[in-house]
Write a structure and sequence with these properties.
By secondary structure, this protein is of the alpha/beta class. It folds into three domains: about 140 residues, Rossmann fold, CATH 3.40.50; about 140 residues, no CATH class; about 190 residues, no CATH class. It has a five-stranded mixed beta sheet with strand order 2-4-3-6-7, with helices on both faces. Helix 5 links the parallel strand 3 and strand 4. Helix 1 packs antiparallel against helix 4 and helix 3 packs antiparallel against helix 4. The termini are far apart.
Length: about 500
């Protein structure tokens, strides 16, 4: 193992400084602005939780007992619940981490805090033997209403703060880059999309590898240029320093990081040839080792159980609600044209395994396999009734049975014909990742207008991009959002023919 030390550049005793890339050099304004916005967000949640808790109690008593509740008691209780919610949020740094975590994590942290608050509140009034003064139904109504208030507040503030970060109004984190100017510029451009601002960038010190020192003995002594580097970084008040190194710089990276460790910042080392790889990876615990995980299974066992439970319940409810259509539509199909009522088509499901997908027949033909041809606008194969049920998605209703038996999910990438999959899998490298989750009756691509014909490679690429976004960002709330958009978004019905 080689021991690295620094030596001054012969051209100059002072390290070269690159121009500031997309950032500002004054930290106080940004930090105070971000702190003010986070305080305002927490204060908004505190106020709305108080109002929601008291409103739930007042409404419940008015509807059930036709009288108003004890105002003094329930106002005090509502304020107590709000204070507990605020303390939990601050204690677990939920708002301070809003810039560095995805939306669904921020929302679920709010849900967990509401659960903790009401569990603590109920336990406290039970232990203090004052629970007789509170209606159990009122407390349940308050918990539900407070949860909704927290979800709404956090959704709005998350969007506002993300917009403020991406537009440059606030900085989530301020970073100093060290490395080649080209690499620094590229890294800065990628980081700025998440609100991470580059406030200064420096050339790396010149490295000298000392092979005479035994591995693990001593430490590199910082030379004048490195001391100057530390002195130049100190007044910038950065949150992070990122060292961009090439393969030949690896032995000296630890020594440079050690010299910079006297600064109160997080220090990162990124191989310049793996910036894209690092951007999509996570350091995880694997047994007693640490690994760099590039991709992960889209759904954890718990998430799969939640999604499956929702699919079963929703598909049963759906089948009951639309049961009259299972009588009317088959009769109409039989009256218009000859042939079976249901169309069975083999498509790829989870893990590329073949499944048989059900649809109400909307065409005069029953094409499958290599004979399959996608439907086009004004396709003569589509019957008059078929155009109506395809435009309204009624032809997809039998797939509720596929959901019930577990071949499909309500929400997921739409299943393609096997011949389409085989053709596009050769052209789009990540195409088969669509099958890492169960296919769905509706999906993120469809509600964003990417359904219908895929007569060009670009159209299919856009569809795949949306499907992969869904897989990589799955949450139960995203599923609910897609279901709502399926019914109410105009884009969900584009290219439906």
């Amino acid at each position: 193992m080689n021991h690295a030390s620094f030596t001054s550049s012969p051209a100059s005793s002072k390290l070269a400084t690159h121009s500031v890339v997309g950032g500002r050099t004054i930290a106080g304004t940004d930090k105070s602005r971000l702190a003010a916005l986070l305080a305002l967000a927490a204060g908004t949640e505190f106020l709305l939780v108080t109002v929601a808790a008291y409103a739930a109690a007042a409404l419940y008593h008015q509807l059930t007992f036709l009288e108003s509740p004890d105002a003094a008691k329930y106002i005090q209780e509502s304020i107590l619940i709000s204070v507990l919610q605020l303390l939990v949020s601050i204690g677990f740094r939920q708002y301070s981490r809003i810039q560095t975590q995805p939306r669904h994590v921020f929302l679920w942290s709010g849900a967990s805090s509401v659960f903790f608050v009401f569990s603590f509140f109920i336990s406290t009034i039970f232990v203090l033997k004052v629970s007789e003064g509170y209606s159990r139904a009122t407390v349940i109504a308050q918990a539900v209403t407070v949860l909704i208030a927290v979800f709404c507040t956090r959704t709005i503030w998350f969007s506002l703060l993300q917009h403020a970060s991406t537009s440059g109004l606030i900085d989530a984190r301020r970073v100093i880059l060290m490395g080649d100017p080209h690499h620094c510029s590229r890294f800065s451009a990628q980081a700025i999309a998440t609100g991470i601002r580059t406030i200064r960038s420096f050339d790396l010190p010149t490295f000298r590898v000392d092979r005479s020192i035994n591995p693990g003995r001593g430490a590199a002594q910082p030379l004048p240029d490195v001391r100057q580097l530390v002195a130049d970084c100190r007044p910038l008040r950065a949150d992070d320093i990122v060292i961009l190194i090439s393969e030949t710089d690896v032995p000296a990276a630890l020594a440079l990081a050690s010299a910079l460790s006297e600064l109160p910042v997080d220090i990162h080392v990124v191989p310049v040839g793996a910036i894209d790889l690092m951007a999509m990876s996570r350091i995880t615990q694997f047994g007693n080792m640490l690994t760099m995980r590039i991709f992960q299974s889209p759904l954890t066992p718990i998430n799969r159980a939640i999604k499956r439970a929702f699919d079963v319940v929703a598909s049963i409810v759906g089948l009951v609600v639309v049961s009259p259509l299972f009588i009317i539509v088959p009769i109409a199909i039989k009256l218009e044209s000859r042939g079976p009522v249901l169309f069975h088509q083999t498509r790829h499901g989870f893990n590329n395994e073949p499944i048989r997908v059900l649809k109400f027949r909307s065409m005069t033909v029953m094409e499958e396999g290599d004979n399959f041809r996608p439907v086009t606008r004004h396709d003569p194969r589509v019957t008059r009734l078929g155009r109506f049920i395809r435009r309204t998605n009624i032809d997809e209703l039998p797939q509720l049975l596929n959901v019930l038996v577990g071949d499909m999910s309500l929400v997921g990438p739409r299943p393609h014909a096997t011949s389409q999959n085989e053709a596009f899998a050769e052209l789009i490298s990540s195409f088969s990742r669509r099958h890492n989750v169960k296919p769905g009756i509706t999906g993120w691509a469809q509600v964003n207008g990417y359904r219908g014909e895929t007569d060009t490679l670009e159209k299919m690429q856009r569809r795949v991009e949306h499907d992969l976004y869904y897989i990589d960002n799955w949450s139960f709330l995203l599923d609910l959002k897609i279901i709502v958009m399926t019914f109410f978004s105009r884009k969900a019905h584009w290219n439906a023919y």
